[in-house]
Amino acid sequence: MKKYGWIALVLMGVGLSSSAHALPMAGISLIGGVNSNLGHYTTSNTPGLTSRLSYTGGLGTQFGPFEVQALYNNLSSGNNAGSSNWLQIPVLLTSGLGGAKVGLGGFFETGVSGTSGTNYGLSGGVKVGIPASRFSLQGLVNFGLKDMGSSFKQTSALLLLGIHVL
To answer: Which of the following CATH numbers is that of domain 2-164: 3.40.50.720, 3.40.50.300, 3.10.350.10, 2.40.160.20?
Structure first.
């Protein structure tokens, strides 16, 4: 984490310093939620993994049309293979669509707390603000592009609740 932890701090600092030019949801949000490890194999003769819900948490900011998050993900596989811990940084280009924001972009993640390796891929999601509150609800899907070994690519779906604090 020491090697990549500074990236999250720089991105959060840029978000705070850019708040004068930001969209209405600018600032910092605390994020918590659940994720599902939806890993997939790229060969047809390899059995798929089942998944179960795990937790995630972190910080997010939006400046201009960009949304950046720094998330700690604890991913568990349903085949009792254990769990892995990741620091994930999705960056999305967002656009308003009615009362929601739709975003497309990419993510980078690195293993933390005894998990080694890195991953990257495509991200997409929808965020809806909860009326008359500082809360938002976001669905995010990350489609891993890196082969994680044995023709396995990591994909996850996240359901996040955010509270806008700054």
So the answer is: 2.40.160.20
